[in-house]
Design a protein that fits this description.
Length: about 475
Amino acid sequence: MSVYDNYETVIGLEVHVQLATKSKAFCGDDTTFGADPNTHISVVSLGHPGTLPKMNKKQVEFAVRLGLALGCKINPRNAFDRKNYFYADLPKGYQITQDKEPICIGGALKVKVGEEWKTIRLHHIHMEEDAGKSIHDIDPKHSLIDLNRAGVPLLEIVTEPDLRSPEEVDAFMSGMRQLVRYLEVSDGNMEEGSLRCDCNVSVRKKGDTQLNARCEVKNMNSMRFARQAIQFEQKRQIDIMEAGGSVQQNTLNFDPATGTTSPLRQKEDAHDYRYFPEPDLPPIVLTEAYIQEVKKQMPPLPNELFQQFTSEFQLSVYDTEILTEEKATALYFLDISKNTKHYKSVANLIINKIKPWCNDNKITISDFPIPTDSIPAFVELIESGKVSSSIAYQRLFPKLIEHPEKTPDALAEELNILQSADEDFLEKIVNEVLEKNPDKVAAYKKGKKNLMGFFMGQVMRSSQGKAEPKATTALLMKKLS
Ligand code: ADP
Ligand code: MG
């Protein structure tokens, strides 16, 4: 046991989600990612004197949607504040955010860490706007500023310090990404910065109940970097404590090149930002009727589907995780499940054939050519033993993609792949196989019973998959006894 095992890590996250609205939080500027620098910048984005912000209704709706999905209390009256600071990518000199009265309070996200479920409580969710982007690595002498992102709507989700390891952070961020995608409030794309987090990390002796001073690692936009940053902090902070020192609260930057953190600035006290109520935006008042309206449009949620798929459909955790990863796949499965009870067979088909086909052809499953109506008949052919599953996968499946308007039964007929248990048909093939392999027959009779697999394979091959397996086995047994 090393000294590191005597400590536990405490982590709280501040997650920023960039919302998938068409326009910015407080003006009509386009929010499309990847546009030429400084092309989506009206006078509001540029913070010209005399301009006024105007609330984007979608931002409010998305905040309520996410809040409801996470079981938050929706604050019926919430308000904006100004967070004042100077930075070149913040032309107004302040960020419009919610400090005292955020839109959502409390709530929790349940995440699966390995085999265990863990509840991570949320402190609150608030609405705010993004700043522009400073670029330091293009010009050797100057920093460049792209203000396209200035004013893009964000939600900030602040957790309680409930996380204990990089694995839990990973699970939380993946769960959050899955949820915002289900809710269609964000593309959840970490590489493009639509989902990023600040990691607050502290360590304490196992068994201690009070929290020690924490450090906040800013702006992690990759799970790998977040993991590395937390691991680095764990060791750094424990080393300080083991040497008899104490950790100073600090804001840190993570350097992916070295895998280390370094101080960005001393942590400002909240009052340094001189928060005060935003005078240009009235408080947001949400009626119960409005909240109910948003609730009505809620899609099924990933954790509910996980429950349903594992209990009602009796699917394995492994299958369920693949099927519920994306909403489109889960809905595709749900649609089919109304018309068949062969859930496992449908799951296999989606996981082994349909999803790979969609990936290869770069389409989403909602554009997959075979209509969900045809899938129950397809799996029924396999389950009833009319078509062997390998033949169904190899021959019927591609044919059905070519002719999605035809029924699986009609196509199986056309392809002449319906299995036969017809005695005469089977007898002819079985006799041929046995005649061709007298040595194997002799060996079988002497006790090499596992040669049955070989005979079956031969019969399947010469019948082109049409020999019905049960009847074939029975006939082979009879002939070889
Ligand atoms: P501030 O208002 O200064 O940003 P908060 O109390 O709001 O600080 O906490 C910000 C984040 O830091 C939250 O996610 C919270 O869970 C986390 N946090 C607070 N104290 C600790 C601690 N001692 N160790 C780890 N995380 C912490
Ligand atoms: Mg904070």
